[in-house]
Design a protein that fits this description.
With 326 residues, the protein is of the alpha/beta class. The protein has helices spanning 16-27, 68-73, 87-92, 94-112, 151-172, 196-206, 225-236, 256-267, 278-281, 297-303, 311-324; strands at 7-11, 32-36, 55-59, 75-80, 119-124, 176-181, 184-185, 210-213, 219-221, 223-224, 244-248, 253-255, 273-276. The chain has a domain at 7-185 and 223-251 and 291-308: 3-Layer(aba) Sandwich (Rossmann fold), CATH 3.40.50.
């Protein structure tokens, strides 16, 4: 860490998770610099914060930010949340996904290494791939699908980020923490890139059918965004987390069909449910994971925290926020 540390650097800070993290850091009295090219983020997410003199927003890719060396040199710590996200984007723009997730991380690691600035890198539960385990822990083997299915390019790019970060930790003693995020949801998330909960809520609000892909029996666990932010803060500030990988996610498992039913019930909607084949929703041969449940004991052991916001509360809070923005 530089002796002249003046701020916390957040890449992707205008995004869904990033904007909530920035809000939290400013509330703590920190100065924050956001670097975001707004390719998937939205400046509007930071609009209520932009009058704060302790916030600076730079619209640029990490690799194209001329000030990056100076910003890193003056950083107390770095949260690297900038990434290409969402199944729709992964399937339709695989080159963009690979270039963004690999190159931007490499540039940031190289910049942070000389001064050993603590760096937290956001990875994804997608790295667990096609594993059939009932729940995934950080030490599990990973089973990635074949390269001709573009959806796995995202998992591979984020996994390479993990390998590269841990290599920097080992060879250059860079203080690195890696987090694997499991379906973070909440206010400010949109269905623009295929995110399921805001997509369901928007359809239920309009009284339109909720489109459930496949047979709807695939299950997921959802984590409220403020729980994710709490975990990020605790991990970044904990020396015991350095050089380690952590799952961050809720553990309340639900099928996509039941999620659709829960959204309709919670919102009192008259919407119906429509089943859509994966080949129609994405592309022929699309391969989905049947279950994706995290083991979060390591997170709790190191930080004393685990996500606990109930799915009902998550749905209600997300729906309230989406209605307020109409």
């Amino acid at each position: 860490m530089s002796a002249a540390s003046t701020h916390i650097l957040v890449t992707g800070g205008a995004g869904f998770i990033g904007s909530h993290l920035v809000e939290r850091l400013l509330r703590e009295g920190k100065s924050v610099v956001v670097v975001d090219d707004l390719s998937t983020g939205n400046r509007r997410n930071l609009h209520p914060l932009e009058t704060n003199p302790r916030l600076r927003v730079i619209q640029a890719r990490v690799s194209a930010c001329a000030e990056l060396p100076a910003l890193v040199a003056q950083a107390e710590s770095i949260f690297h949340l900038a990434a290409a996200v969402g199944v729709d984007l992964v399937v339709k723009s695989p080159i963009h996904v690979l270039e963004t997730n690999l190159h931007e991380t490499e540039v940031l690691l190289e910049a942070a290494a000389p001064l050993r600035v603590p760096l937290l890198i956001a990875s994804t539960s997608e790295v667990y791939g096609k594993s059939q385990k009932a729940a995934f822990s950080e030490e599990d083997d990973l089973l990635i699908g074949p390269p001709h299915q573009s959806r796995w390019s995202y998992a591979c790019s984020k996994l390479m980020d993990e390998f590269l970060a841990l290599a920097y930790a080992q060879e250059r003693t860079l203080p690195v923490v890696i987090v694997r995020l499991f379906n973070t949801v909440g206010p400010r998330q949109t269905g623009r890139y295929g995110m399921v909960l805001p997509r369901f809520i928007a359809a239920a609000r309009r009284g339109e059918p909720l489109r459930v892909f496949g047979d709807g029996q695939q299950t997921r666990c959802f984590c409220y965004v403020l729980d994710t932010v709490e975990a990020l803060r605790r991990l970044q500030d904990n020396p015991a987390a350095r050089g380690e990988v952590f799952n961050i996610g809720g553990t309340e498992e639900i099928s996509m069909l039941d999620l659709a039913r829960r959204v309709i019930e919670t919102l009192g909607s008259k919407s119906t449910i429509e089943f859509v084949p994966y080949a129609e929703a994405y592309a022929p041969g699309f391969d989905d994971m049947r279950r994706r449940k995290p083991v979060v004991e390591k997170l709790e052991r190191v930080t004393g925290f685990r996500p606990k916001t109930s799915l009902r509360d998550i749905i209600e809070r997300t729906a309230e926020n989406m209605e307020a923005e109409l």
